[in-house]
């Protein structure tokens, strides 16, 4: 990375030896810990040491969380982080082809390593700002080894917890010779420390030869899976023993009954995309949260990308909630029960955004709930803000009303990354300059004329 890019962020502060969060309303997402109307959380060397009332810790850094709700850090189980600087460039995209026109088929081909760095940094900081402490980074624009390095460097510099799923580009000229062998190089360079916040995965389609490389390295495999069009391949893969708990399938729309049985039997991890499935009309446009749940699979939630909409998990929970209610009411109406609803509620969706998302990422033993012994990934939400006060139901407040602006503090692995509503260690002026430079390069290279009021993204045709 050039000096301009590498100095966007200050070096990460050390993890405090002791930290004590006092007086929070605690939603633990752990049945043994339960929920605490007013309690304390003791963190020691990045790990949750105790949860209770009137905890004492000599020499601890104290955070007064009175009037705040503490929740586990949210987990985005599928995000194309490299697209960060393309935010809302295509807000009315109606199909996957529309999405690809504004990403893979145009700008992606001109990404330099520094553009990958800027996109990943911007996405990671946006996640932290919105209370997402872990992201599964679906990096399907790894054009060279240097591009992959830039993506990982950005995640490490931002201080987010991440699973970096390196993947081959979809279009354009790229260094095909480095794939998939680059994964072994990445593992040796970045991923020898088991305590690192960032871990490695592969992004690949239903390609057993590629999967074999990932399995030799012992890393998960992330796949964009559309059930209606791809389910027919599952039976053969399952019969050959090629599906397992190291598979993470995105979307899983329109999957038939047999497909769900196969995924459950094989232990495949699933995430669903309430907004992107609807926004881009993926198959029938309905996310698979309810179908997965009914088949004994607990899916995570994912934002997917920011090229059409925002990057927060609050909206994913709400869209999932209301789509489920609509579908339930429609079904009930057809059956003569006007007010029947699909069996979902706010708590289940908060599970999907936290503990279930952690399981999809393969990190449920480390994060996803406020549990003594787990890493301290947590979010403090101010309840005195005008849009939240009074809090008559803590879970309802988080799922149905809270916003990014209500997040006071974000802690990842015991390190404070947002405090007083501000993400720490960011040179805002340098960050904006780097984003502007990257956009300028990508737009010029692709022949794109920016239009702040465009109703659609016109495909770019280059000679």
UniProtKB/TrEMBL annotation:
Database matches in Gene3D superfamilies: Metal-dependent hydrolases, Urease, subunit C, domain 1
Pfam families assigned to the protein according to its UniProt record, in alphabetical order: Amidohydro_1
Residue span(s) of domain Amidohydrolase-related: 223-416
Alphabetical list of InterPro entries matching this protein: Amidohydro-rel, Metal-dep_hydrolase_composite, Metal_Hydrolase, MTA/SAH_deaminase
Annotated PANTHER family: AMINOHYDROLASE SSNA-RELATED, CHLOROHYDROLASE FAMILY PROTEIN
Homology family: Belongs to the metallo-dependent hydrolases superfamily. ATZ/TRZ family.
This protein's name: Amidohydrolase family protein
Organism of derivation: Janthinobacterium rivuli
